[in-house]
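Need residues for this backbone.
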């Protein structure tokens, strides 16, 4: 890794000389690995630190990734798969998991959160529904017993389909079949001061009803938007409306003390013919406009003082993901490390058109940066 350290310092120097803006600390990214052509975690570590990405979410606790990011400033959410939920309700197995998958890395890698299960209520298996909260509680209790609960919080990520009604946002409610589970889960979040994670994709809503939903509205483009008749709050994009619908659903069952965070959102750059809107241009618009909102530390209309907290899905295109074409094309980057599209970061990603002579030197320097980055990924 000594060679990588030298390379990394060189890359930081080049970025400083180029005077370009790099990704800020506000951006979180999901690091999925369902692929057979991705660069090694050590190379990914160099790449992301050069772009100043400060937060990553894993779907497991891959030791190679956690080791690769040791002594970095990157914060991690690690995951426990749905297949382990029943085991995690057992105190011995929960402690073994924490001691094997978490503790060895905490001294050098910033792991701040464990997501127990993922989109559990997307399944029709009521047994796994019942296993979720006991698993969350036992993992949390294990952290308490080991003196780690102030350092690492416990939560789970939900699909947006847990919301039964989302329009208008002030009338948001949970599905009736999961109300009892939501009550108990929100009590847990309130007691442990942990966030409620939601995977929100305006793309899905647009794909299903392109004749009824404005493309500009879902892409954060200028549009008339909509006004909530109950609150008079104005919404100029669907993502914020979805988040506020979740806040309303939480409030409807008695909680106002739990923060909502977006654990996944994104837009595919390619899809099947039936997947309306899945284009490179739309993906670029969605991500670049979302990034601007993150950098502005915007809150939603109902929570204007709480900056929207977002993890984009995903870091790379993942060629082994099952399902429609879109599933394999959510990445910000191709596996060779080149960006899928330009997300408007003022010159630090290729594809920007420079209109004045003053930018030529920046472009030349940036080309050098990209060349070094490509070398590091292939080295």
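Answer:
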């Amino acid at each position: 890794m000594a060679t990588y350290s030298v390379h990394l310092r060189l890359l930081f120097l080049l970025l400083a000389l180029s005077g370009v803006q790099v990704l800020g600390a506000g951006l979180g990214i999901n690091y999925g690995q369902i692929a057979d052509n991705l660069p090694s975690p050590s190379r990914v570590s160099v790449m992301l630190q050069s772009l100043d990405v400060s937060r990553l979410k894993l779907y497991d606790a891959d030791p190679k990734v956690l080791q690769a990011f040791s002594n970095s400033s990157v914060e991690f959410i690690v995951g426990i798969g749905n297949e382990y939920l029943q085991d995690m309700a057992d105190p011995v197995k929960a402690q073994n998991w924490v001691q094997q998958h978490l503790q060895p890395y905490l001294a050098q890698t910033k792991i701040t959160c464990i997501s127990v299960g993922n989109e559990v209520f997307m399944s029709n298996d009521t047994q796994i529904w019942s296993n979720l909260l006991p698993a969350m509680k036992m993992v949390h209790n294990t952290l308490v017993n080991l003196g780690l609960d102030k350092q690492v919080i416990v939560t789970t990520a939900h699909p947006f389909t847990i919301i039964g009604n989302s329009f208008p946002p002030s009338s948001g409610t949970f599905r009736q079949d999961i109300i009892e589970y939501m009550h108990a889960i929100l009590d847990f979040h309130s007691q442990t001061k942990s966030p409620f994670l939601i995977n929100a994709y305006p793309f899905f809503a647009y794909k299903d009803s392109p004749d009824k939903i404005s493309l500009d509205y879902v892409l954060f483009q200028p549009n008339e938007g909509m006004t909530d008749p109950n609150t008079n709050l104005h919404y100029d994009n669907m993502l914020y409306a979805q988040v506020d619908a979740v806040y309303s659903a939480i409030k409807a069952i008695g909680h106002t003390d739990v923060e909502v965070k977006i654990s996944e959102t994104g837009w595919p750059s390619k899809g099947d013919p039936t997947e309306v809107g899945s284009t490179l241009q739309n993906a670029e618009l969605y991500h670049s406009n979302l990034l601007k909102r993150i950098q502005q530390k915007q809150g939603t209309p109902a929570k204007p003082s709480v900056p929207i907290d977002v993890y984009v899905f995903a870091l790379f295109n993942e060629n082994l993901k099952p399902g429609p074409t879109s599933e394999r094309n959510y990445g910000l980057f191709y596996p060779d490390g080149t960006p899928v599209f330009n997300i408007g970061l003022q010159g630090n990603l290729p594809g920007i058109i420079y209109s004045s002579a003053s930018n030529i030197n920046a472009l030349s320097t940036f080309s050098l940066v990209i060349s070094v980055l490509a070398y590091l990924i292939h080295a």
